[in-house]
Design a protein that fits this description.
mainly alpha; elongated
Amino acid sequence: MEQRRSRPPNNGRRRGTPPASLPPQVRRPVPRGARPADGRPASAGGPDGQPAGLRLTGLGGGLFCTAVMILLGLLDQLMFGASLTLYGVLFLPVCVLTALWVRGGDLLTAPVVVPIAFAAGLFPVADGTGGLLGRLMGLVTGLATQAGWLYGGTLLAGVIVLVRRVLWVRARRSRA
C-alpha cells in the first residue's frame, strides 16, 4: 500500500529568492556594509575564517600543485643543476599554498595531491642517464633520498587541512 506524502513537494526554491528562470541581473545587489544571513560582517571571508578570495576545487588544487612543482623542477634543473635539496625546500611553500587555497568541500584532496605533484616535478630533476629506464631509476632514487621533504610537505598540508576543517565544522555548528 502506498503512503501519501505528509509534506508538500520541494520545487528547489527557498523563500525570498527569485525564481531560477530569471537572469542574475534581476537579483537585488547586497547594500554596502550589509551583513550576510549568518551575521558575520561582509568582509569576514569564508565560513572557515579564511579570506574568500581564491578557492580552488580539488582538481584545480591538484593541477596547480603539479604545474608549479613541474615548473620548479625545470627551473631547478636549468638554474641550479638539479639540486634535490632546493627542490625539497621549494616543495614546502607549494604544499602550504595548496592546503590554504583548496575550498572547504575539497579539503581532504590537498594531502593526496601534494605527493603526486612532488613525484611529477621530481622527474626533470632526477638524475638519470640511459633513456627512459635510467630516468625512471633516477626518479625512484630521488623519491627514496628525498622522502623527508615529501613526508614533511604532506604532513604540513595535512595539518593545515585538519585545522581548516575543524574551523569549518565549528562555524557550521555555531550557525546552526
